[in-house]
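Record minuted for everyone:
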Amino acid sequence: MFSVCMRDCYDTCSIISEIRRGKLFVRGNPKHPITQGFLCPKGALLPKWFYGEERLRVPLIREGKRGAGKFREATWSEAISLVADKIKETIEKYGSESILVYNYAGDRGIVNFYFPMRLFHYLNASFLDYGICDRAGQEALKDVYGTAVGLDPEELKNQKLIVYWGINAFWTNLHGFMLAKKYGLEIWAVDVLKTETAKRSNKFFQIKPNTDVLFALGIARIIIENELYDVDFIRKNVYGFDEFKNYVKKIDLDFVSRETGVEKEQIEEFAFEYAEKRGVIHIGYGFQRSLAGGEAVRTISLLPALVGHEFGFIYDMKTIDKSYAEGAFLRTKPVKRIPQMKLAEYIEMGEIKFLYVYNSNPLASLPNQNRLRKALKESDIFVVVHDIFLTDTALFADVVLPANTFFERLDIADSYYHRYVALNEPVTRLYGKSNREVTVMLAKALGIDNPYLYETEEAIIRKILQQNDLSWEELRKKGFLKVPEKPRKYYTPSGKIEFYSQRAVKRGLSPFPQYTPLKRDYPLQLLSPTYRMTITSQYHNTYGIIDPYLYMNPKDAEERGIKNGDLVEVYNEYGRIKTAVKLTEDVPKGVVVLYKAFWISKLGWNVNVLTADSTVEKYGNASAYHSTWVDVRKI
């Protein structure tokens, strides 16, 4: 049977699944050009996740205080009736906008992700304005290119160099990393941390945090003043180059070197070799989740255009129109969108009275967890969670509905990295119901008679494929299809790549990217990257493979009398956590690292007790997790 990994991951692997001796077995689809016949360590363990002992089997209704984890078992009929009654009551008392559906990419199946939205659009509920992941970079690339869609990774076969800028691809885009290796590309890394990717790269440029803007501007200046840029390409495709040329003349390379921590010779080496090899830049998501992130992405994205490499970056990939699955046409009122990072604030203001959570675990993944948990405990909000496990968010719910896994339903998934759509067939069934099944049950309980709320998975999939000129029959036969690329263009006011960004000016920004040193409230900057064996909060409870250590530079430790293995307290204005420390030169002085989003209910703490819930307003209220400052003391 064909499956597809629905995790929030670049690779979106096509899987061959089968039941042997009554048990599920999985392997990478050898015919899929990106999956290449192998799965990452997380994917190889999917059967362990599928058979997880903690999987929810029956609906639960809260009996104790919110967050105490005291529930009683209920029938599906009772649970669905209670949820439907609360929806009606909420609309009558507070209006439909007081209902918020909180979903994200915990499961990226197109039907599973979008179908519940149909019901909430029909009810005229509020929706999220997603800002947690890649929003700042999306806005930045639209400022320059009018789109965040970059290079098809299969085009790497025609390239010489890939620069992994702020992405630990060996952990988070393993198939992409191996593709670059397969095609024989030279690999460079630009990062604050000496990651596993950096260690496997031909060249590593270690910069200080928040200085990506300066590093990229310094490279641009060297390329321009040495006339290494592509004159013909720029004349035809770039708007505002002469103005940008004058702007970068003011960039002092000695200042760039001091601020970034990179020697001038290294900056020059990067600029000259990059221009010669016309490298592709894979722009990571992590570093743009900061107060300086949007400006950083904007600057970095100029470099490929300078050397005449059209769309010479990798960031996002939007291949098909999925809007039919969402059903926004069912609304009768304009949609109210609540910034994702401001969930606690809107609960505190009393604007959310009913919260429906699926495909997400915000009580692990959102920042400033103490504030969010306090807001939930002190409000009269009604919370429904549909999930596979009793997550940290489910522990705060009034009703918990068991979900099934992607091995138990029909769906399709696309990728935000490559151009393939893959089929997901039901292999077997254990527990729970799909998002579509629960939505249908709620629609019936609410007495809604609308055919779009009862459409089958296959009907929706067929319609989406038809709208995108793809064949259902061919997909069923092959298990995946490549979406043809349409002619590319720049969706900017000038119709060109805008070095002088008119869209940025309209949004109240400078026409050129600017470097602004960030104010430190505490002496150490806390970075919270993804751990290799989890995807945000997923797999912590089933694989049990986590890394709870605080990683710290030996010089910072020495100043605080801390030795390797010591128990320490990490603290700031948001909260404090206790853990053991590991000293390493891979983390520069002035920076500490805690891996993100482990379960508080399992570990006792989570880095998001410490992370800042500030947002980058001019970049779409994007998250700023990595603009968090802390101090550390020995216990």
User: Anything to note?
Assistant: The chain is about 30% helix and 20% strand. The mean pLDDT is 97. The longest strand covers residues 576-583.
